[in-house]
Amino acid sequence: RPRSHTVTTTSSSFTANLSASSSTLAYDREFLRTVPGLLMVTEIVLGLLVWTLIAGTEYFLYPAFGWVMFVAVFYWVLTVFFLIIYMTMTYTRIPQVPWTMVGLCFNGSAFVLYLIAAIVDATSVTKDLDNHNYNSWAASSFFAFVVTSCYAGNTYFSFISWRSRTLQ
């Protein structure tokens, strides 16, 4: 008597989801042409200037400059992180996160802490401390206020975006 061979094929939803999630990331070229995108790039470039101008000095001898370094480096790293998220449109893949609220909190906290750091930076710069580092500290103070104004602008745009989402 002949034996019958039965082959059963099943497909799992895991492999379908895996292949869908491993697709290439999108790239939003238009983000850098928006005002928030331009402000974000400016924050990254000038924030880098703030902390490199201080890092090139003996800032660790003065606790006030340590605070400025912390704020500048912390928000520089987070701004780069958020730029990557917005450029790759990762936020569309994680809809559970309230991105407008996250952006508002991030930019608002960056504005407040950068404003405090810029004021601390400006009030700590004196020729009495160290003539050699005076120019670097003065320049970092100037750029810290410019970065603060960029974060203020992005806070405004984040608020407008958040407000329009909550009214819907």
Automatic annotation (TrEMBL):
Keywords: Membrane, Transmembrane, Transmembrane helix. It is found in: Membrane. GO terms for cellular component: membrane. Its main location: membrane. The keyword Transmembrane applies. One of its GO terms (molecular function) is structural constituent of myelin sheath. The keyword Transmembrane applies. It is a multi-pass membrane protein. Residues 31-163 form the MARVEL domain. This is CKLF8 protein. It comes from Toxostoma redivivum. The gene is Cmtm8.
